[in-house]
Amino acid sequence: MLAKRLEKLHPYVPGEQPKDRDYIKLNANENPYPPHPAVAEAIKGAVDRRTEKLGLYPDPDANVLRTSIADMLNSTGGVFCTSKISGEKCEPSEKDKIPFTVTPDMIFCGNGSDEVLSFVFYTFFDGDRPLVMPEFTYSFYPVYCGYYGIPMDAIPLKSDWTLDKEKMLSSANKNNSSIIFANPNAPTGLSLTRDEVAEMIRKAPRDRIFVVDEAYCDFGGESCIPLLKDFDNLVIVRTFSKSLSFAGMRLGYVVSSPDLIKAIFTVKNSFNHFPVDFITQTAGAASCKEAWYYAENAKKIADERDSFTEFLRQRGWFVIDSRTNFVFTKKDGLSGDAIYQAVKKSGILIRHFATPGIEDFVRITIGTHEQMEQLKKTLESL
Ligand SMILES: *Cc1c(COP(=O)(O)O)cnc(C)c1O
């Protein structure tokens, strides 16, 4: 009774959300800080004072929200962690200044960046050639390849866990393929500089789409938004889930040229006119206005990450340099699963992947200072 296409599906497995006890959750790269109070106020206001709006379809184009996102990107440069905060205002650091104004017609919003990625795959990738990606990157990309019947060309990382840019490019040029990766990458946490990405795009097929997923950029990466000035085949995917404490609300977006955004709208309107509901649009727009608060949190998380990395290295752990809100680490003599199990016993959840090649590692989301102190105690007792 089932459609044949189901055989090609290999669903993504998210970090566990257990109910048996109150764990400290350091396994899904969620933000340990709550949304700004103004976000809750905006939701309450929407429900109490605009109750009738709950019975009406939301703005299908999310225009107010897209304007708010554009404003936020212009005022932070797309990197919270390095933006300059004064009072309740942000300003991009010198190196993150965007050399043009991001406009709402350069933004597309969807129900989490997972859905946004699904629209991007449908809009830009055909089944007639492989899509080039790193072997280890966000594990939803292979899932969507199965979903849409897109062949995959997964290029192994180099021995230092960095992307093999040369192999990715030669492979893409051989088949005239599109390229996708996360920058910073997951689960490694390593980041390419904007100049390195620019050089890749210059050498990649110019009539194919080049996708950079910036889910973690706010924690210390370099955003590729400034490159939109030079490349009309660049598509940047971003999410509210991590740096904007919004994983429970579901909001992701694309930044690209107005022409490519229009194409994604065509796909969205052929699938679901209203992927972002009225409350999420309201809460999302309210979040953008408090970018300074989320920038402060991103700085705290980045500081905590750096001191946690130092802590681990002093105790003989191998830790990959992270520009994200997590670290990817392993220790000789301990299996990834053993670390995961021992930490779970102490009431803390971290992530372990059984995938060959990375099975010794664990991925630990950076929590609050108190949470990290508790985790350190457990790790010292291993
Ligand atoms: C978390 C994550 C996403 C998905 O984010 P949502 O907006 O919550 O769907 C996309 N890409 C990468 C690399 C991520 O880590």
Strand and helix layout:
Layout (H helix, E strand, L loop, with lengths): L23 E2 L11 H13 L13 H14 L7 E3 L2 E3 L15 E4 L1 H13 L6 E4 L5 H9 L3 E4 L9 H11 L3 E4 L11 H10 L6 E4 L20 E6 L12 E4 L2 H11 L9 H12 L1 H24 L3 E2 L6 E5 L5 H10 L2 E2 L1 E2 L9 E4 L3 H12 L2
Helix pairs in contact: 1-8, 2-8, 3-4, 3-7
The structure holds pyridoxal-5'-phosphate.
Characteristics:
15 strands, about 15% strand, binds pyridoxal-5'-phosphate, alpha/beta, 5-stranded mixed sheet, 4-stranded antiparallel sheet, about 375 residues
Widest sheet, order of strands: 4-10-9-8-7
Rg for CA atoms: 20 Å
Backbone structural class: alpha/beta
Query: Major sheet, described briefly?
Result: 5 strands, mixed
The distinct ligands, each listed once, are:
pyridoxal-5'-phosphate
On the 0 to 100 scale, the average pLDDT is 96
Query: What is the share of helical residues?
Result: 25-40%
As residue ranges, the low-confidence spans are none
Strand % is 5-15%
Question: Treating each run of at least 4 consecutive H or I residues as one helix, how many helices?
Answer: 11
**SSE series:** EHHEEEHEHEHEHEEEHHHEEHEEEH
According to DSSP, the number of beta strands is 15
Termini distance?
50 Å
- The gross shape turns out to be globular
